[in-house]
Amino acid sequence: MVAERLASGEIEFGIIRSDAVGTRLKAIPLGMLEFALFVRRKRGTNRDWKAVLATHPLVLLEGAGSFRRELHRCSEEAGIALRIELECSSFPSVAKALRKTNMAAILPTLAAEEFSQTDYEQFPLPWAKTLSRKLSLAWNPRIAKVRDLISSTSDPLAKALSW
């Protein structure tokens, strides 16, 4: 876990959920991580997120956490049988698979800048609002006392990373 590695001094900076900062770390807010469904644009076939999930195989981030549970719950409520055909260990890998296949993918909305609006559609996922997270750039102030570069780098780094 990144927060633990920051607390131990193993790493200098980390991007973590804002609610995980606690009292041992300092942090600067970066923005809200939200999710959307992305799919290659096809003439007249992609109407809404339910239609895309019902008709396209999916590439997703691996795991069985709250995101996956909520996805399965909502798809069951909508009567959609998910076709998860590929799982990846990182969001950049999910994005790459989306580019190379005809699958749909659930990605952070930040990924939209990586995909042409003429070639890809982005669908908001109403159920994914509960999974949105405020993220922060965090560091350990105790470690920053011995590594001067941390204090002088935190503001410019946060500015470069924020959205």
Task: Give the structure's gist in a few sentences.
With about 160 residues, the chain is α/β, with parallel strands linked by helices. About 35% of the residues lie in helices and about 25% in strands. Strand 4, helix 3 (about 65-75) and strand 5 (about 85-90) form a beta-alpha-beta unit.
Summarize this structure as a short list of keywords or feature phrases:
2 domains; alpha/beta; 33% helix; 163 residues
Query: Rg, please?
Result: 18 Å
CATH superfamily of the largest domain: Periplasmic binding protein-like II
Order of helices and strands: HEEEHEHEHEEEHH
| Global geometry | elongated
Strand elements, count? 8
CATH architecture of the largest domain: 3-Layer(aba) Sandwich
Average pLDDT, all residues:
91
In the CATH scheme, the class of the largest domain would be: Alpha Beta
- Provide the spatial order of strands within the biggest beta sheet: 5-4-6-3-7
Helix/strand-derived category reads alpha/beta
Give the number of domains: 2
Classify the fold: give the CATH topology of the largest domain.
D-Maltodextrin-Binding Protein, domain 2
What is the count of helical runs? Answer: 6
Mind explaining what this structure looks like?
This protein has 163 residues and is α/β, with parallel strands linked by helices. The protein folds into two domains: 2-31 and 133-161, no CATH class; 35-131, Periplasmic binding protein-like II (D-Maltodextrin-Binding Protein, domain 2, 3-Layer(aba) Sandwich), CATH 3.40.190.10. The chain contains six helices and eight strands; from the N terminus they run αβββαβαβαβββαα. The chain has a five-stranded mixed beta sheet with strand order 5-4-6-3-7, sandwiched between helices. The mean pLDDT is 91.
